[in-house]
Amino acid sequence: MQLRVRALETVLAEKGYLDPAALDQIIEAYETKIGPHNGARIVAKAWTDPAFKHRLLQDATEAVRALGHESRVGDHLTAVENTREVHNIVVCTLCSCYPWEMLGLPPVWYKSAPYRSRTVKDPRGVLADFGVTLPKDTEVRVWDSTAETRYLVLPMRPGGTEGWSEEKLAELVNRDSMIGTGLASQPGKAS
After folding, report:
1. Burial of 114 (0-12, 13-18, 19+ CB in 10 A)
2. 28-56: b or e for each residue (b if 16 or more CB lie within 10 Å)?
3. What angle do CA 186, 39, 149 make, to 5 degrees?
4. Residue 35: pLDDT above 80?
5. Which of 22, 71, 91, 94 is the most buried (most CB within 10 A)?
C-alpha cells in the first residue's frame, strides 16, 4: 500500500496536480495539531477535572472550544460516557462522518460498509471482533454520526491510575476507545 501511495504521489506531483510541500504540511498538521492526541487530552482532562467532565457531557462543542479546539467543518460535538452499565459505540451509517479534530484521520474500517451496517444490527458482535467483550447486563448504545453531529466516547478510566497527571493518563487513551470499539489501555499496557 505504501508503494502505491508513493507512486500515486509521484505521478500527481510530476503532472503538477499536487504540491509535495503542501501535502507535507497537511500531513504534519494531522500528526502534530490534529488527531487522536487531542481527543486523548480531552478525555484525560475529563477524568481528572469533574467540572470539565460535566461541561463536556453537557455541551462538548463548547467544552473543547474553551480549550482552543475549533471544528473546521462546523459540526456539533457530543460526548457520551462509558460506564459499567452502558457502553457506547459510534458509527456513521451514511458515509464516514467523524470528529477529525479530536480523533485524526478516520480508520479504513470506520468507512467500510460492513462496519457501518453491522454495528447497528450486531454491535456486540462488532465489539467482539475488536476484542471487546462486555458483561451481558451492560447496555450497548449505538450513536449514528451525521454531517451535523459527531460523537466522542469518554471511555472509563482504568483502575490503578489515581493521582496520575493528565499527560500520563492521555497515554492510556487510544482512538478506538474514543469511538467505542476499544477500551482505554490498562496501566503498563498503553498502545
Report:
1. exposed
2. eeeeeebbbbbbbbbbbbbbbeeebbebb
3. 125
4. no
5. 91
Intra-chain end-to-end CA distance of the chain, in Å: 23
pLDDT above 70 covers a percentage of the chain that reads 93
Catalytic residue numbers?
92, 95-97
Q: Check residue 31 and give its pLDDT.
A: 64
DSSP code, position 92? -
pTM, rounded to two decimals: 0.83
Burial degree of 107 (CB within 10 A; 0-12, 13-18, 19+): middle
Of residues 74 and 153, which shows the higher confidence score?
153
Residue 58: enclosing H or E segment and its boundaries?
helix 50-58
Q: How far from the centroid of its chain's Cα atoms is residue 88's Cα?
A: 12
The residue assigned the cell 451525521 is: 146
